[in-house]
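Marked as duplicate of an earlier ticket. Keeping the data here for the record.
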Amino acid sequence: MDLPISAEDYLAWEQEQPTKSEYFRGEIFAMVGASRKHVTITMNLVADLMSALEGSPCRVYAADMKLRLLEDDAYFYPDILVTCDASDHRAEQFMSTPTVVIEVLSPSTASFDRGDKFAAYRRIPSLREFVLVDPEARSVERYTRIDNDIWQLRDIAPETPLTLDSLDVAIPWDRLFQNLD
């Protein structure tokens, strides 16, 4: 496929593919399979978030749901996104207004997740918190929007819960990294 391609062509092309690909500013990037640790952490977080948000207007989506970023001409597959927007709950192909995005790092994507992808996420008006989880280092970073253009980083200390203030949720440290060994 000739580059750059349009977002519309990407969406049509991807529907016919057996594997997922992300789209960023006219380029397509194939997604590779995740490690056992990556999947375990993602599922731990999804389980706790779903339980904590039961009965609320917020819903949890993982891995296979695209996130559209109009400002950056991008479609990403965050490991986890939480949206409280009713229009997202009716969407079939992609979400647009996340409150929280969580990425579980892998060696092949860590620099992109921390760099260009986070820069794009920061331009989503609805996004309140962005979390990076490193399975190898067993570390967690939480970025919180405190003003339109100001994000505050908090390294979550071991044994300290991951708090997501925008959702009024706290996930115990041992639950995050449960079943890794």
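See parent ticket for discussion. The helical segments are 7-15, 36-53, 86-90, 110-121, 173-176.
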